Each structure stands twice: as structure tokens, then as C-alpha cells.
Amino acid sequence: MEGPEPSEFAKERHAAFAEMMLHELPRDYASQEINRVTLAYFAVSSLSLLRSLHRVDKDQIATWVLSFQAKPKETHNVDDGKFFGFCGSRSCQFSEDSVQSVSNLASTYSALAILKVIGYDFQNFDSSIILESMRSLQMPDGSFMPIDSGAETDLRFVYCAAAISSMLNDWSGMDREKAKDYIINCQSYDGGFGLTAGSESHGGATYCAVAALFLMGFIQTDCNNSLSLPTSTIDIPSLVEWCIQRQGADGGFQGRANKDSDTCYAFWVGGVLKMLGLYHLVNKSALRTFLFTCQSPYGGFTKFPYEVLPDLYHSYYGFAALSLLDEKELGNLSVELGLAALN
Amino acid sequence: MDYFRAVYVARELSPRALRLTTEALLRNPGNYTIWHFRRLVIDALDSDLVEETLFVDNLAEANSKNYQIWHHKRWLAEKLGPEAANDDHDFTRFILCHDAKNYHAWSHRQWVLQKLGGWDKELDFCHQLLEEDIFNNSAWNQRFFVITRSPLLGGLSAMWDSEVDYTIKAILQNPSNESPWRYLQGLYKGNPDSLITDERIPQLLLNILKENSYCVFAWNFLLDVLCKGLRPNKEIEEAVKGFTELDDAGSSDQDLPTRICSALERMDPIRVNYWAWRKSNLTL
Q: Per the UniProt record, which EC number(s) apply here (chain B) (predicted)?
């Protein structure tokens, strides 16, 4: 197949891929339909990073996203524990009585992220019900459930809550101290973070932990790129070494020790180092070489090297990882929010 | 889905509603609304939980990375209580046979242990997995979980000594395996003074470096213990000085940690920036 050199970023192909994924997903994604809004976030945020948002109708996207918002009746009592955020899919919506709709934290994060990326004007957006009802999702140990009817609680949803609060610029929806305590308990003996206390250190969990601490203001870097941690929180040297050790001889990043390198961890783990002001410790040329072995000839990125068919998740995090590497065809990233930098 | 919405809105908690959720979940096991409703129906009908376990285990086998299925298993386990803990462990053992690093299975297993028990064979299970694959980091993590949390073993302080021996044996088996090195580090976290006084540590490092002078993890560990205050014996000093070449800009007075960092910059090129950074921070 004719095309760019293997080490050249195929911007047009990637933009075409992301645009196609926004309009219609291939049937292989049917099992992921419950996460439709999240998939749209990957596509829209990809287009934003690719500086290709002009390819889409932003008003149409805004209308579509807002149609997933769950709204209470006027007489609703916020103490009944129900969460009113955004649903992830039509299959969680009930058209006649939208009070039945089941919204969740992850799709709320995705929905707000899409709106931010397309430049939606939040001036008239009433976020109060999202934040008030989000409090019901926080557990006594500081973690968050994704939905009010009960589900697993882990670091992913602590991150979502922090990102939602940050995007809405309002921290009334969560107890940050409790969330911080939960995060600290998730640091493993080897310096990385697991999704729950006692779980194996994992790149995605580590990102959620550090990004959430960052967003909540518990980690700051000053102008000298030194870290300041106001109270004793986490073991930074072990964390740094854990992250650095995830880069393999093939240049890519693995998600856990002794596992294969995978495109997405270049963002999850690389992003942690970036937030800590230590991205310069990454072997960038080796990483770049690895990522280009995952660039699909069809546009997008694959999970592993030399596979052919891309998927939307690895494509988005491939773009995000290359943005961290200052790929010139890509825009800047807001690492802690996981989306294109907002101007 | 419209049929489902109808019974959901009507709150019809009947056998046919249960069958409907079965149909719906077989098509889309990710829909948490349907799982939630199914739980309401099961409670209302007081359905056979053993049969339900069979249903969800079949789904879990085919969709072993689906969060909602594992959550439903948790809900069932809680209802069935401690007597069912061993059956549940048998199931996760089965899943881990096919995928020894399945994160969901390990999370679930840890939850069942803490909530319902069944700790007695867990350390053996970890050992068995490590015999099959000493590189299995999930099994090492589980081992740490067991020795620190099992109510049957006395906690880390009681297990510490034997675990250090166990880990050293594993390291010697394959010094390029990151997992036992991290585990060893973890064992000493609660006991930092012993890290610099335990004779086994310099002995281990010398043994490895004699056979394999390019073992990055060994040099890394030595660097860390020196930084934490280990007083190097003569053998260690000679090993470092003998192996490490002088930096072009350096002198024979360079201290051991500096020499080791320089050596690591050459030995571990992927992490060359990290070792240079460690070196620059040594005097801080």
C-alpha cells in the first residue's frame, strides 16, 4: 500500500479514520455500545489533537451529547441518592420518563470532555445537579461508584469525579481529602498504583491516581519543575522508578511488569512522568520508533506492533502519546484531563 | 431493549422478566442497567443462587474482562456467604489457568478473600503459579497481598524472614526478572534499617554480580541500598571499582553510587536519561 514512510505521521489518514469512527462505528464495536459516548470522546478528542475539528459539525455534536443528559423532575430530592449526569448510550435512556435513565461517571466525564473540546459555551449550562448528585456516588473510603445502583468502586471513578469537578471548576461534588486518602492506599509495594488497595500496579491505575491528585491540587510542580507535596502523600521516588522501568527494550511502555509493550501505556505511564515534570527521562527516540510500528496503514493505531487493524482506543492514546513527544502535526495535550489543551 | 424498558418501568419482577434479562444479557453483557434489574428480580423471586452462579460463570468465561459480570459475581458471593468462598476461588483459579494475569479475576479473588475468607491455600496457590511462571508479576503481587493481609499467617513481620529467603532464591533463579527484585524492595519497606544491616543483601548482590556483571537490577538495588546508608564492605567496594570504568570527566575519587550510575547509563541505554538524573541527584 502506497503511503507515508513508516516513520512519518500519517495525519490525513488518522483524521479520516477518526472522522469515520465519529459518524459510524464498525460492527465489532457493538459490544461496546454501552460506552457510545466514550467512543465519541475518543473520536472527537482525536480530531481535536489532529487539528481537524473543522471536519465536523460542532453544533450537531453538542446537541447529540446534551441529549444524553439525565435530568430530574422539578420536585426531585437530591438526597435520594440518584445520580444525574450523562448516560453513556441510548440503551440506558428511557424516552418517556427520563428520570429512569441511568447515567454514569465515566460517560459524564466523556460528555463534558467532548463539550469542552468543541468549545461549547458553558455559561448557560447548569452543572449544579451533576455535582450535587455526584456526592452520593462517593463511598466512605473515598472511592466512587460509577452509578447509583451499585457497581465496582475503584480509582477510575475517583479520576472521573476529579476530572468532572475540574472541568466544571467546582469541587462541591466530592470530598477531596477522602479521595486523596483512597488514592494513597492504592500505591503498591513497588511504587506503582493498583486500581484498588492491594491490586497489582497498573499503568492506567497509576495515571488515574496521579492525575486525580494533580487535578485536586495535591501535587504541584513549580517553575523549576520541582515537585511539591504539601503533606506526606505518596512515595514519589518509587513511583518514578516504577514508571521508568515500564519502558521496554523495544522502546514501548508496558502496563505491568513483565508484560508486553502496548501503545496506550505510552500515554498512561508517559503522562504520569509528564505530570511529575520528568518526561525528559523517557527515551523519546526509542518510544517514537515503537509507536510508529503500531501506526496502522488504515489510519489510527494498533495495540501491538505490526498488527494491521486499528482500534479507536489505541488510536486516541497513540495520538496522545505522540503529542507528548511533540509530534508537529498534533496539538498540545492537557495531560491531567486527557484531552487536547483548552485555550 | 424496548421490551426491557417496558418491564423495567413497570417494575415487573417476574419469571418472564428474568428470562428477558437473560436474553438481553447474552446479547449485551455490558449493560449495567439490565444487570441491576436482574438483581431486583432475583431478590423478588428468591431465585436459586447456585443456578445463577452457573449462568454468570458461563458468561464470565466468555467475557472474562467484563466489569459488570464480575460485579454480579461479587453480589452473588455476598449473598451466598463464606460457605461459597471456596467455590468462588475454584472459579477464579479456572479463569487464571487460562489467563494467569487477568486483572479482573485477581481483583475479584482479593475481594472474596477479604470479605468471605478461604485464605488457607492461597500462599500455595501463589507458589504454584510462580513455579509455572516465575515472571508472573500478578502472582508476586498476590503473594504480597497474602503475606500482609492473611489472618492465618501473622502478618509481614512474622513472614518477613522466610519471604526474604524465598525471594532471594527466585532472584538467583533468574536475576533479569524484575518482579522478585520489586518484591524484595517491598519486603524491606516496613523495615528500612534491616535493609542496610541484613547480611543476605550484599551477599546476594555479590553472588549475582560475580556471575553476571551486567545485571541491571542488581546494580540498581546496590545503588539504592548505598543511597539508603549501606556501609559497603571491601568486597562490594572492589566489585564496584573493578567493574566500573572511570568517567572521562571523573576521577578515582568518585564515590560508589556515582560510579554505579555511570555504569548503568551504559548498561541500560533505554533508561540513560534516568540514570543520569539519579547521578545528578546524588549530592542532594
A: 2.5.1.58, 2.5.1.59
State the nearest Cα–Cα gap between A138 and chain B, in angstroms. 17
Q: Are the C-beta atoms of B113 and B122 separated by less than 8 Å?
A: yes
Burial class (CB in 10 A: 0-12, 13-18, 19+), A203: buried
Quote the DSSP letter at residue B191: -
d(CA A300, CA A311): 7
One pLDDT digit (tens) per residue for chain A, 343 residues:
455 556 799 999 999 999 999 888 888 787 788 888 999 999 999 999 999 999 999 999 999 999 999 988 877 776 788 899 999 988 888 765 566 778 999 999 999 999 999 999 988 888 999 999 999 999 999 999 999 887 889 999 999 999 999 999 999 999 999 999 999 999 999 999 999 999 999 999 999 999 999 999 998 776 555 666 654 679 999 999 999 999 999 999 999 999 999 999 999 999 999 999 999 999 999 999 999 999 999 999 999 999 988 999 999 999 999 999 999 999 999 999 999 886 5
Query: B65, B121, B169, B210: which is the annotated catalytic residue?
Result: B65
**A190: nearest CA partner in chain B:** B182
* CA distances to A81, A315, B96, B110, B143 from B183, in Å: 42, 34, 21, 18, 9
CB contact under 8 A, A96 and B149: no
Q: For residue A78, which of A130, A4, A20 has the smallest C-alpha distance?
A: A130
Q: Which residues are within 8 A (CB) of A86 and not within 5 positions of it... i.e. 6 or more apart? A: A37, A65, A68, A69, A70, A103, A104, A107, A108, A110, A111, A112
Give the number of other CB atoms < 10 A from CB of residue B51. Answer: 9
Instruction: Give ipTM to 2 decimals.
Output: 0.93
Q: Which residues, 6 or more positions from B172, have their beta carbon under 8 angstroms from its beta carbon?
A: B204, B207, B208
Residue A138 pairs with which residues in a beta bridge? Answer: A144
Tell me which residue of B33, B278, B26 sits closest to A93, measured CA to CA: B33
Active site residue B169: no
Query: Searching chain B, which residue's CA lies closest to the CA of residue A193?
Result: B141
C-alpha cell at B265: 547509563
pTM given for the model: 0.94
